[in-house]
Amino acid sequence: MFRFEDPAYLYLLAAVPVLALIRFVLARRQRRRLRRFGDPALLRQLMPGVSRWRPDAKFWLLEAVLALLVVMLARPQMGTKISHEKRTGIETIIAMDISNSMFAEDVEPSRLDRSKMMVENLVDNFTDDKVGLIVFAGDAFVQLPITSDYVSAKMFLSDISPSMIATQGTDVARAIEMATHSFTQQQGIGKAIIVITDGEDHEGGAVEAAEAARKKGMRVYVLGVGSPKGSPIRMPDTGDYIKDNAGNTVMSALNEDMCKQIAEAGGGAYIHVDNNSNAQEQLNSELDKLAKKETSSTIYSDYDEQFQAFGLIALLLLIIETCLLDRKNPLFRNVRLFARRKKAVAMAALLIASTATAMAQSDRQYIRDGNRLFRAGDYARAEVAYRKAIEKNPRNPQAEFNLGNALLAQKKDSAAITSFEAATKLESNSLRKAQAYHNIGVVCQGHKLYAEAIEAYKAALRLNPKDDTTRYNLELCKRQQRKQQQQQQNKPKEDKDNKQDGQDKNKKDKDNKQQQQKQDPEKMSKENAEQLLNAAVQQEKSTQERMKKAMQQPRSRKLQKNW
């Protein structure tokens, strides 16, 4: 497939016919001037060194050079670079129990959170392996199809919660059966099913399902999370413990016997997960025993640049034009290869060609450096390389797309979305544009922006209808959006009721306070009046008693000395 990376430069080709028209008009005027001097045949005899066709040939050679330079600026590309990467690893499907019993806190911080941390550490330990994710309770469904995209695996892992499955219970058999159909069709590669559960199987048939998986060449490993002694289940949204119909607190205990039976039937191993165990090391050791097989995957890298061929042709034509003289001279006595005018034209052309070459090479080189650093896990330096590529060529969609991946690996989600959006605007290839929209949807879904994620997934499917992963994510996102909308609809009603109750209470308190204030002044004034009256009565009695005593005592004129 042939294409132009920057087709906007092709508009400059309009200068070619314009210059040709100007050349035609000027040549016609020159011929009219010559006719004024005399007969054209006589004039040709008087000017034997003048060539009739050489000036036209030189002009059209320069026109061709100009057209080729414009094509070089548009960066022609042919075909695609296809790289076949070979990986040696295994395939792993993780089935995680998300029933309410996983909220028990006998394992810190909880059974569910501890399981998530183990899966995340497991994914970090993978290099060339493939991983898939299944969640189950009373039912089971695929959370993430088997893939080598570890970044997406971690994002889907963080979004797991028991609310994703309405049917409560623990159907381990259903999860194992679904896992057996989630692997690739490749033969000879180690395939592991890792069941993370507390062992409270309410449906049965798990041992038979594990045995059937073993017969198909798959190993079933069981991670038993929790304590055999049991623990109450506290719901994180309310903080209350789950109780049965009789009002007793439900105790959830790890069923180790059943977990061991499932692992034995599946040809794997049982690993107990508690606060003190080295379950992670044991699991990694068990997986290392599986057969690893080399797999090849075809990965798109980029289009091959074809500007070099156009540059060589332009340089060749420029050399021919420079060597072609205006006058006839068999002995080359008047050869002027480096005449001032020709030298200026040649230098300008070479300068443009070298500039285009340097620009095209530099941004491609930065992208290659960034890809090498990204594969090595040095995402920060890869980001720097991609940004340098964008600085050299702001219209390179591959640089924007790769920059988004590097930012996403560093959990810079908002910046990653910006880069992916820029890639969708610059990219002309439908498949690569679909990948950019898919990544936007994954980021938005991880942040519970379901409306934005749905639109991104729809845009990706319109460009690539055969992408089953995007189609699955779209359906999952729609389901999560409906659940979110239901929660939002119930919350305003509760808030309104609580608000109304608060308003009624405040109004009642206010009325009571006003009534009390209205009654208190009357009550206080009455009490004060009674006190004043009693004081006046007591004062009057005291005065009368002093007067009575004074009248009864004898009178004396003796004065007391005032010492």
Protein model, in words:
The protein is an alpha/beta fold. The chain has a domain of 201 residues: von Willebrand factor, type A domain (Rossmann fold, 3-Layer(aba) Sandwich). Helix content is 57%, strand content 14%. Helix 7 packs parallel to helix 8 and helix 15 runs antiparallel to helix 16.
Rg measurement, Å? 44 Å
- Ranges with pLDDT <50 over ≥5 residues? 516-526, 550-563
CATH topology description of one domain: Rossmann fold
CATH class value of one domain: Alpha Beta
Q: How many strand segments?
A: 11
In percent, how helical is the residue content? Answer: 55-70%
Number of helical runs?
17
Helix- and strand-based class?
Answer: alpha/beta
Shape: elongated
CATH homologous superfamily of one domain?
Answer: von Willebrand factor, type A domain
Beta-strand share of residues? 5-15%
User: Architecture of one domain, according to CATH?
Assistant: 3-Layer(aba) Sandwich
Distance between the termini: 134 Å
SSE string: EHHHEEHEEHHEHEEEHEHEHHHHHHHH
Q: Biggest sheet: strands, sense, closure?
A: 6 strands, mixed
The largest beta-sheet arranges its strands as 5-4-3-6-7-10
Average pLDDT confidence is: 77
